[in-house]
Amino acid sequence: MGIMGIVESSKSTKYASAEVSLGKFAGCADMKTRSYLSDNDAVFISNSPKFIKETTQNPKPSLYAYTLNELKSLLSPSFRAKQVYHWLYHRYENNIAAMDNISKAMQEHLQSHFIISQIEPVRIEKSSDGSKKYLFQTKDGHTFESVLIQMKSKELDESGEIVKGEKWTMCLSSQIGCKVGCAFCFTAKGGFVRNLNAGEIVEQVVMMKRDSNIAPNKRVNIVYMGMGEPLHNLANVSQAIKILAELDGLSISARRQTISTSGIAPKIKELGELNLGVQLAISLHAVSDELRSKLMPINKAYNIAEVLNEVRAFPVDSRKRVMFEYLMIKGVNDDIKAAKKLLALLNGIKAKVNLILFNPHEGSEFQRPLMEDVKAFADFLVKKGLLCTIRESKGIDISAACGQLREKIKRENGEITQKSKKAKV
């Protein structure tokens, strides 16, 4: 399948066929048989059923879904791709007509074959600690969440590192819903809808930067810890990682991007073979297969030993460690006996442990642990030589745990009945 690349000339405008594989971008299909809504139409009718139906059936690929080289292969002369990148990622522009250093012919071509925005914020909530929770809506009418966490000097970031100066961590979603079904996870209550495409993942970063006036050169860390299992959507997530790392774009290097996985062992191996340079985090949360299988059903397919074997083979940046996320739940996995088993499991792995306090939500049977138990757990690991941090909870007052804001809005809109409020765990 192909799309037309435009060739600019001082005398005339010619068109040349430029072949590109669009299959890896979800929602992209044969562009020769499409009729589209204009960008202006999208602005005015984005909430109407007609818009949702037509844009779902007749999508155009987003400019956010391409690396710079891919865009160069579609636009001629190729320097136009750099201009577009500058508008997208340095000016945060989402209107092709506003790109005033690009010829009208090229603007018309871009408008005919591409869109920019695929998502829009329908609710933004700001926490007293400066964190922001975003609820985004896609063009096919589904919602998902992202979180912007502002870190101040000497605080610990989401990777457990001490912040020097001010920086931001963006927690991105990779799917609408999730298939993994962890017992403690709020997202699991809503089931799985679909994967986010690469453009939808990248646009989360652009939207949050634009909304919070974060300059393109300001340091940002990316963690794929929002809704969904990133390794169940590896094609789109890996594409997004490459796009975000583009030096002419947002320039968020792969080593400042962390993929958090529930432990899909074959996909951990596949991720390592891609040699992206991305950081790896494992959602462990238990030290026995029996408990982990109860908390995380995926453990029945890939047990702790299988996951750790793939972690040992994973190419880790010499300056980094594999992060093991351990969600502490009162009376479940928060005692010193569990700490001793965790120490034994991670023996020989260049690891750091990030202790996370359970974020309580309506309908859950689990409780937040006592801070004295968390500190005792951490102190034991540190004294034994294992790097361990306690993640500072952010956004508790804005439903910042995955899926909470989405559920809250559905309830406000009457989409959730009283009967369905309580989760079955």
Automatic annotation (TrEMBL):
In the UniProt entry, which residues are flagged as the active site?
145 (proton acceptor), 402 (s-methylcysteine intermediate)
Q: Where in the cell is it found?
A: Cytoplasm
Question: How is its cofactor bound, per UniProt?
Answer: Binds 1 [4Fe-4S] cluster. The cluster is coordinated with 3 cysteines and an exchangeable S-adenosyl-L-methionine.
Entry's InterPro entries? Aldolase_TIM (IPR013785), Methyltransferase_A (IPR040072), RlmN_N (IPR048641), RNA_MTrfase_RlmN (IPR027492), rRNA_lsu_MTrfase_RlmN/Cfr (IPR004383), rSAM (IPR007197), rSAM_sf (IPR058240)
Its UniProt miscellaneous note says: Reaction proceeds by a ping-pong mechanism involving intermediate methylation of a conserved cysteine residue.
Q: Which residues bind [4Fe-4S] cluster?
A: 178, 182, 185
- List the catalysed reactions: adenosine(2503) in 23S rRNA + 2 reduced [2Fe-2S]-[ferredoxin] + 2 S-adenosyl-L-methionine = 2-methyladenosine(2503) in 23S rRNA + 5'-deoxyadenosine + L-methionine + 2 oxidized [2Fe-2S]-[ferredoxin] + S-adenosyl-L-homocysteine; adenosine(37) in tRNA + 2 reduced [2Fe-2S]-[ferredoxin] + 2 S-adenosyl-L-methionine = 2-methyladenosine(37) in tRNA + 5'-deoxyadenosine + L-methionine + 2 oxidized [2Fe-2S]-[ferredoxin] + S-adenosyl-L-homocysteine
Binding residues for S-adenosyl-L-methionine: 228-229, 260, 283-285, 359
Similarity remark? Belongs to the radical SAM superfamily. RlmN family.
Top-level taxon in the UniProt lineage: Bacteria
Query: Major location, coarse class?
Result: cytoplasm
Q: Does the keyword Lyase apply?
A: no
Protein name listed in UniProt: Probable dual-specificity RNA methyltransferase RlmN
Supply the source organism's classification. Answer: Bacteria, Pseudomonadati, Campylobacterota, Epsilonproteobacteria, Campylobacterales
Please report the stretch or stretches of sequence annotated as the Radical SAM core domain. Answer: 164-397
HAMAP family xref list: RNA_methyltr_RlmN
Q: What EC numbers are recorded for this enzyme?
A: 2.1.1.192
Q: Which Pfam families match?
A: Radical_SAM (PF04055), RlmN_N (PF21016)
The Gene Ontology terms for molecular function here are: 4 iron, 4 sulfur cluster binding; metal ion binding; rRNA (adenine(2503)-C2-)-methyltransferase activity; rRNA binding; tRNA (adenine(37)-C2)-methyltransferase activity; tRNA binding
Q: Which CDD domains match?
A: Radical_SAM (cd01335)
Q: What does this protein do?
A: Specifically methylates position 2 of adenine 2503 in 23S rRNA and position 2 of adenine 37 in tRNAs.
Q: Give the CC-aspect GO terms.
A: cytoplasm
Q: Which UniProt keywords apply?
A: 4Fe-4S, Cytoplasm, Disulfide bond, Iron, Iron-sulfur, Metal-binding, Methyltransferase, rRNA processing, S-adenosyl-L-methionine, Transferase, tRNA processing
Question: What organism is recorded for this protein?
Answer: Helicobacter cinaedi
The gene for this chain is rlmN
